[in-house]
Amino acid sequence: MDVGFPVRVVREGGVEIVVPDMDVYRRPNGVYEPAWAPVFYNPRMAFNRDIAVVFARTYARLRGLDKLVVVEPLAGSGVRAVRYAVEAGAIVFASDIDSDAVYLSRVNAERNKVSERVRVEKADANEFMARLPRMGVKPTIIDIDPFGSPAPFLDTAIQALRPRGVLAVTATDTAPLSGTHPRALRRRYDVRPGRLAWEKEQAVRILAGYIIRRAAAHEYGVRILLAYYVDYYVRIYAELWRGAGRADKSLEQLGYGAYCYSCGYTSLASNPLERCPYCQAQLGIVGPLYIGKLCDESFIEEMLREAEKMWDILAEPDRVVKLLEQLLKECDIVKPYYRLDKLCSILRMNMPKMNTVVEELRNRGYNATRTHFDPRGFKTNAPHWAVVKMLLETRR
Ligand SMILES: C[S@@+](CC[C@H](N)C(=O)[O-])C[C@H]1O[C@@H](n2cnc3c(N)ncnc32)[C@H](O)[C@@H]1O
Questions:
Q1: Contact partners, residue 360, CB within 8 Å, separation at least 6
Q2: Distance 121 CA to ligand 1 centre (A)
Q3: In the chain, pLDDT over 90 holds for what percent of residues?
Q4: Which residue of 55, 57, 212, 385 is 20 to 30 Å from 49, comparing CA positions?
Q5: What distance in Å separates the CA atoms of residue 28 and residue 141, rounded to the nearest whole number?
Q6: pLDDT tens track for 240-299
Q7: Spacing, Cα 96 to ligand 1 middle (Å)
């Protein structure tokens, strides 16, 4: 096949797609760099796409939708669009600003016999989404999967959505979101910047909070169905439902994150505390951010059922199930995770085993679990004094 650059055929999930030949676009150190290829295809994001199709099928089933319309305005090779069509039975409207990407997406739709259901246009993402209402397209899911920050696309996506629908958003600008680049964090997300010990949860909560604020401006309320951080990106599935009252209610879910660099205290609160309630030191504060639950248990349980049905189709089914099961354990614990290594360094003690910490907290009647955010982290609803007491007592 002559598309003007070297290609190869790969299988991902339930589709077979043509992508740039990854051996040709490697850095001198041998690492494949998707952004160097003429059309973007990242095999490491197959897991992200697995979850996207499981989510779409679950959402359509639970809402009783007989027609699922998905919009993917930053389509790259078209792999995600084609997977939505083949694996979730969706009608997909996709676009990309790059001509080669549009061509390859069309080739891939045809190759998988879904060109009737996957329409791809060469267009700027915002211009494309702004045109959708005039085209009579009413998306149930809009999947924003950009290079870096999704912020420039959110307003148009929200306005293009049905009165009730889902924004599925990826953010790879994790350095600003987790506080490493404070000026970019303030600029892009209008957030009082800082860097807390639970930086990955901070990244997810800031993006969720920003979606809530943008949605409220357009009179939509938001329910966070699923939000997580893996590899090098944040991913959020937010259900938006039009209504000023719903928007007002969602805004009540905004607040501030706090971390005490002196004693390791961590919390979420509606109003920013300035002093640590345990040791009175000045707190690190970040916000506004989302202070509610990061997933909906019953929805995740349904996703797990759907993932079992798709076991032979998904690219990484065991990883999908493992993440969903872990999120299910974390769902109820809203308080941000503790970094065991940082807490032990503050307490000047050796680090006990993570399993011991989790078990010990459970033995004392608290909810506790490891966290998907960080292998060095744990989540618990135990108050800070109880966490410190437990750690000091394991020292004996
Ligand atoms: C991260 S890639 C998308 C990957 C794809 N969603 C997937 O799952 O493989 C981002 C894509 O956005 C396209 N792009 C960048 N800026 C754009 C814009 N303003 N409008 C439309 N497409 C754009 C790029 O050409 C690139 O193909």
A1: 390, 394
A2: 12
A3: 92
A4: 212
A5: 39
A6: 999 999 999 999 999 999 999 999 999 999 998 889 999 999 999 999 999 999 999 999
A7: 6
Question: Is residue 74 lining ligand 1, measured as CB closer than 6 Å?
Answer: yes
* C-beta of 96 in contact with ligand 1 (< 6 A): yes
For the chain, give every domain's residue range. Answer: 9-297, 337-396
**What percent of the chain is predicted at pLDDT more than 70?**
99
Q: Is ipTM strictly over 0.90?
A: yes
Amino acid identity of residue 205, one-letter, is R
Selected from 1.20.950.20, 3.30.70.270, 3.40.50.300, 3.30.56.70, the CATH number assigned to the domain covering 337-396 reads 3.30.56.70
**Is residue 100 scored above 70 in pLDDT?**
yes
Q: What is the pLDDT of residue 396?
A: 64
Q: Is the pLDDT of residue 193 over 70?
A: yes
| DSSP codes joined into one string, 258-288 | EE-TTT--EEEESS---B-TTT-PBPEEEEE
* Pick from 292, 271, 273: nearest CA to 281: 273
